[in-house]
Structures are given as structure tokens and as C-alpha cells.
Amino acid sequence: MRISVIGTGYLGATHAACMAELGFEVLGLDVDQAKIDCLSRGELPFHEPGLPELLLKHIASGRLRFTTSYEEVGAWADVHFIGVGTPQKAGDNAADLTYVDAATLSLARHITKDSLIVGKSTVPVGTARRLQQLVIKNKNDGVDVGFAWNPEFLREGFAVKDTLTPDRLVVGVDNPDAEAVLREVYATALAANTPFISTDFETAELVKVAANAFLATKISFINAFSEVTETVGGDIRTLADAIGHDTRIGRRFLNAGVGFGGGCLPKDIRALQARVSELGLERTMRFLSEVDEINLRRRDRVVFLAEDMLGELAGKKIAVLGVAFKPDSDDVRDSPALDVAARLFSAGADVNVFDPEANTNAAKRFPRLNYVNSTVDAARDADLVILLTEWAEFKALAPTDLDDLVRGKRFIDGRNVLDMGVWQDAGWDITALGHRHVGQK
Ligand SMILES: NC(=O)c1ccc[n+]([C@@H]2O[C@H](COP(=O)([O-])OP(=O)(O)OC[C@H]3O[C@@H](n4cnc5c(N)ncnc54)[C@H](O)[C@@H]3O)[C@@H](O)[C@H]2O)c1
Ligand SMILES: O=c1ccn([C@@H]2O[C@H](COP(=O)(O)OP(=O)(O)O[C@H]3O[C@H](CO)[C@@H](O)[C@H](O)[C@H]3O)[C@@H](O)[C@H]2O)c(=O)[nH]1
């Protein structure tokens, strides 16, 4: 079976390489010539553990190629996965469907053999049915083109593992043939007893946004309790551990900190609200505005704490450790860390930034921050150090790593990953989100 993947960004490049790993012949397509050139050379244009190895392996095996030609893809593949972006529309909460519409239309017009189009992008409910009609109206006569929806649940940083061994597979289909093709594509996972949920288009689309809305809600839930413990005292990590032992609740996604960001959770909860409002259900997802607001208030809290600890921000040197939206990623889309760094700079602070992988992407968005290549360079002469992305090397920091470098022993742990007692004993004024700031011991 020959597979094409349309859109070779974080999702598409991963899907393409993993499909090749499963034994299929794969052709990845993107409209971005530079990206296609880069991938064709075996270079991954973003950071994702394990993916560069797969890319190189299957370019060498001949099973993985890249192109910008819809004509080539349409004449070649039996199954076409669509993984183009569905970002938030500028000035609006809704999803921008321009790319997914354009990709579907291009496919429909260029497919010259019987095949199946499978949407993977995250879309508002109702999109799949609309796109199916677009295909029916625009496909070539005499060619049988099926349509299905198969949302993707991979996490950046674990993209290869999540694609090869997913928690579950969800397919939205309207006929048994489409389901049979998808069962063949995912035969390896099915043989490993991965749950396979075959349903209609609407349920498949909704499962995806429901999962992200639930995860976002879980994070804002614990972060709301952070606002309480910051006021009355208490330990947010212990609280999360204690409720997490209840298997009905579970400990995962209860890490309090500067909140969620990235190319998915923030835009997906906004797009869900926009879509249900469009359907006349304005009140239904209103709680997600609160989830969003609680999340954004975490960033205000870090800026407030910095100001509180330093008296004023103007002229102060601040080391920001981490700007990626999460560790093991170079993605800075809607990154809480980068937002905080930029706000500290706007308030007059001199901001040194170090992220093991995301400096380059961050510099494209905020070139005026001072990007450096190590924690040591970031912390030298700093009046305050702020940890905002929990990379392993930051979690392993000890006071002795920074004691002789900084101008002021002040630390904000924006991800709740350090042992504050150890730092306090070493004379640091340290606080973490979800803890009352008590100052120096
Ligand atoms: N990033 C993730 O971890 C992840 C996980 C699950 C689902 N998703 C969803 O997958 C989709 C893609 O996300 P992403 O993070 O990979 O985005 P991305 O921006 O990294 O990649 C999108 C790619 O699509 C290409 N593209 C745009 N228009 C095109 C067209 N007409 N034809 C061919 N290519 C085109 C772009 O050039 C880009 O390379 C989104 O809907 C997202 O919500 C992402
Ligand atoms: O306890 C937690 C867990 C996560 N986060 C933050 O939440 C954001 C999102 O994290 P994560 O969900 O791991 O990253 P993504 O790669 O964006 O993955 C989410 O978004 C993808 C795109 O839709 C989905 O496929 C995944 O299932 C879903 O987890 C990051 O900023 C994290 O720092 C927290 O603040 N606390």
C-alpha cells in the first residue's frame, strides 16, 4: 500500500516517517519548498527525539520520499493522510480552515486512481462532512475517492512512540471499505490490541477536541488551586499527588506551573468554543473561557513575583531558563515561557534566555531578548533566575551550580520541579508557582 502525507510539519513528518517504519511506501507533500528540500536531505526542520533517525533510515531504505507535486501524489498513493495546520484565525477564536480546505481541494483535483483521503488535522465538528462534499464535487470522473477522518493524539516530544504505539485509534468512516483500509494501515497496532474505535465523522472530530479540552481543564484545575495555596499556604505538589492517588482522578496532567501552551491545547479549546457557539450552544463550553483565563493568569503571576522580588524590573538582569512550550520540543507556539520572557523585557528588564533547543525559534519571534548557549551564560550576574520549561538539565540544577555566578540569589520555579528546601538552605530566596512566597530564610 502506498501512502501520502499532505503537510509535513510536526504531525505530518512524524506520520510519514512512522508509516515508512511500518513497512509502507510513503510520499510526503508540503507546499513549503524549503521544508521539502530539508526533509529530502534527511534533515528534520524541528526537534523531535527519535525522529531524525527514522527519517534517515527510511530515506536510505527508499520507502520515504518528499515532493511538492500534488500531481505526483495524486497519481501514486492509495491512501492520502491530510496533516496540514489548522491554526487560530487572526483576531478570532475560530480555527482557520484555509489550509485544510486547500489541501483537500488540491487532492480531489489531482487524484487519478481509486484511493482514500483521510483527514488527520484537528478540525471543528462538521468539517469532515463538508470536505467530503468538496471531494465529491471536485474529483475526476471515473475515479473512486473515499473519505475518512482519523484524528491524531501524538504529543510533541513523544511523537514517534505515540504514533507507533498509540493509546487508541479513532476512525470516522461512513462505509466498511474505508474502515477496512484503515485497519490495514494500522494492522501492527491492532495486532498489539490497541483499542480501535470506528465511528462516524462527527464523533471522530469531537473525540479529538474533547480530549484536548479535558487535558487543558485538568491543568487549569490544579492551577486554580495554585492560586489558593499561594494565598493561604500549602503545597500544590502534595495536593496533586494526594488527589492523583484516586484512580478516578489520576496524577497525570496535574503538574501546576506556568500553564499550557503549544500549537494545540490553547487554540483547540478556543476553536471548540467558537464552533459550539456557531451551533447556537453559546453557554455549553463557556467553562473553557475560564480554563483559558486561569491558564493566562499564571503568566501574570510570574511577572508579578519577579517584580515583587526585585522591587522593580527596569534595569534588572533576569535569566530565563527554557522558552519552549514544554521540554523535548523546540516549539514556541503560544509558549507561556516565551510570553513571560517577552513581558519581562517589555517592562525594562535585561533578559538572558537559554533553551537547549528552542532559542532559534524564539529568536524569530522575539529577536530582542538576549539568547545565550548555556545556563551558566544565562545566570551570570543575574538578579533573578526563572525556570519556565522543565528540561531535564534544569530539573537537575543545584544551588552550587549558580551560587558564584548570580548577582542576587533569587529564583522562581515556574514548573514546580526543584526541591525548594535545598535552595533555601543554600541562602536562596526561592519560590514556586502554587506556593506562598515567604522570602529568604
Ligand atoms: N503538533 C502536534 O503535536 C499535533 C498533534 C495532533 C494533532 N495536530 C494537528 O495537526 C495539524 C498540523 O499540526 P502541526 O503542528 O503539524 O502544524 P505545522 O504548522 O507544523 O505543519 C503544517 C504543515 O502544513 C503545510 N501546509 C499548509 N498548507 C498546505 C497545503 N495546502 N498543502 C500541503 N501542505 C500544506 C505547511 O507548510 C506546514 O509544513 C493541526 O491541525 C494540529 O492541530 C498536531
Ligand atoms: O501537568 C501538566 C501537563 C502539561 N502541561 C503543559 O501543557 C502543555 C501541553 O502539553 P502536552 O499535552 O504534553 O503537549 P502537546 O504536544 O501540545 O500535546 C497535546 O496536544 C496534541 C495536539 O492536539 C495532542 O495530540 C496531545 O494528545 C496533547 O497532549 C505544555 O505547555 C505543558 O507544559 C502542564 O502545564 N501541566
Automatic annotation (TrEMBL):
Binding-site positions, NAD(+): D30, K35, T86, T122, E156, K267, R333
Residues passing through the membrane, by range: none
Active site: C264 (nucleophile)
Limits of the UDP-glucose/GDP-mannose dehydrogenase C-terminal domain: 319-420
Reaction(s) catalysed (UniProt annotation): UDP-alpha-D-glucose + 2 NAD(+) + H2O = UDP-alpha-D-glucuronate + 2 NADH + 3 H(+)
EC number assigned by the record: 1.1.1.22
Pathway membership: Nucleotide-sugar biosynthesis; UDP-alpha-D-glucuronate biosynthesis; UDP-alpha-D-glucuronate from UDP-alpha-D-glucose: step 1/1
Matches recorded under Pfam families: UDPG_MGDP_dh (PF00984), UDPG_MGDP_dh_C (PF03720), UDPG_MGDP_dh_N (PF03721)
GO MF entries: NAD binding; UDP-glucose 6-dehydrogenase activity
Metal-binding recorded as keyword: no
Family from the record: Belongs to the UDP-glucose/GDP-mannose dehydrogenase family.
Protein name: UDP-glucose 6-dehydrogenase
Native organism taxonomy: Bacteria, Bacillati, Actinomycetota, Actinomycetes, Micrococcales
